[in-house]
Amino acid sequence: MSAAPTVISTEHALNIAKKVQEFKGLRILHPRLIDAEKEMMVAIRDCPRNAILYLYGPSGVGKSTLKEKVERNILREASLELVQNKNRVALVSVEAPSPDSGTFKWREHFKLILQSLDEPLLDLRTDRVGQKLTPSMMLAAQNNARVAVAAYQTSVTTALKFRQPIALITDEAQHIAKVASGRHIVDQLDVIKSVANSSETPHLLVGTYELLKMRILNGQAARRSLEVDFGRYRADVDEDAIAFRDVIDKFARKMPFDEPPNLLAHWDFLYERTIGCVGILKDWLVRALSQALWEDTGTVRLSDLQDTALSVKAISRLLDECLAGEAIFKETEEEHKLIRARMKLDRDKGGQPTTTPQSVEPATQPAPKRLGKPFERLPKRDPIGIEVQDEDL
User: Collapsing DSSP states into helix, strand and coil, what is residue 227?
Assistant: First the structure.
């Protein structure tokens, strides 16, 4: 006879859910997070009012945690000024809507910004230049996507200029780079640049390495752009490997057991299925902890980790995207030499080039001299008959 299923009381189930939720809300400080937070805050404090800031990183590295810490820092630093200026807000934070049709919708994004500001201009009462719309014009704006987007953009610009936030933060900003066929990503960047200019509000775009498509699309935007690469831990770098093991140990010690599980014994497997991303590691440990608590094993076992790990195919896809993004960020010695050569900086004290040119233009050959007198035919045999082309056959 099969064993009767274990009956779990409602109280015990609630207790398990509470422990899992507490662990899920845990935030572990680690070197990558601390360094990126400092770099991001320096960029926000010192950037021009129309700057565009980028925060990149692979999926699951912990960008959301970093964004939350940056937001708390901004709120804390602006608290005194907010008391004195009731009209001002510290920041505006939204998540770029995922384009269900494959194309990013500015209209939906602008509506989210206005909702975050609790802005009454959601009813499209003004057009692009700020003129009031009549009822018939408002109806036309609702039905015409182009008119509606222009009206929303004006409302957003006006609201940001009035509220004067320290920054407009857009999470999942890689969605903005998704455009329809025939359009250009540079058009998307132009919209961001226009709003930042008109509202005098720094824009912080947080997203995956897909955001790299927008990074340096034109010189004007690149000139006032700052970027922070929130990367993963590398197993081939001793310092990174040590830091990643330390993160594993900290998570283990925070698990609700009498004795912390020995996760360090499986650190290479934990790295393999996270590619060194702390966010992926934490989500995985939450799943493993939940399974261990429901099975009442008293600890997280290797079998719990194996049952709840991401598949090899999923990890392979994540690793491909991560390596592609890291390759773009990496500056090679050849690129450095090339930019110096283009600026004519690769010369010694005597003014001679210090590097061999990559290619040499072929010398122009002089035209052959013509025989005989001008306008006199050269001696040759004239063709006889009709010449037949291949396509006529």
Answer: strand
**Residue 260 CB coordination number (10 Å):** 17
Q: How many domains are there within the chain?
A: 2
Same domain membership, residue 221 and residue 251: no
**In the predicted structure, residue 213 carries a pLDDT above the cut 60:** yes
Cα–Cα dist 61/20, whole Å = 21
Q: What is the pLDDT of residues 231-266, one digit of tens each?
A: 999 999 999 999 999 999 999 999 999 999 999 999
Same domain? For 263 and 289 the reply is yes
Q: What is the CATH number of the domain that holds 67?
A: 3.40.50.300
Burial group, residue 276, by CB count within 10 angstroms (0-12, 13-18, 19+): buried
Q: How many CB atoms lie within 10 A of CB 281?
A: 24
Cβ atoms 156, 195 nearer than 8 A? yes
Q: What is the residue whose two structure tokens read 């082309």?
A: 389
pLDDT at 196 over 90: yes
The mean-pLDDT minimum among 43-57, 84-98, 283-297, 340-354 falls in: 340-354
Q: What is the pLDDT of residues 361-385, one digit of tens each?
A: 444 445 455 445 444 455 555 444 4
Distance, CA of 338 to CA of 355 (rounded, Å): 10
Q: Residue 244 sits in which domain range?
A: 16-24+234-329
Examine the domain organization and report whether 79 and 163 are in the same domain.
yes
Which residue's entry shows tokens 């008119």? Answer: 147
Q: Dig out the tokens for 214 from the structure.
A: 């927008």
- Average pLDDT of the chain? 82
Number of CB atoms found within 10 A of residue 322's CB: 22
Residue 342 exposed, middle or buried by CB count within 10 Å (0-12, 13-18, 19+): exposed
Does 253 lie in the same domain as 225?
A: no
* Residue 303: CA count within 13 A, CB half-sphere: 5
**Rounded-to-integer distance, Cα 14 and Cα 18, Å:** 6
> Can you tell me the distance from the alpha carbon of 219 to that of 216, in angstroms, rounded to the nearest whole number?
7
First to last CA, the chain: 87
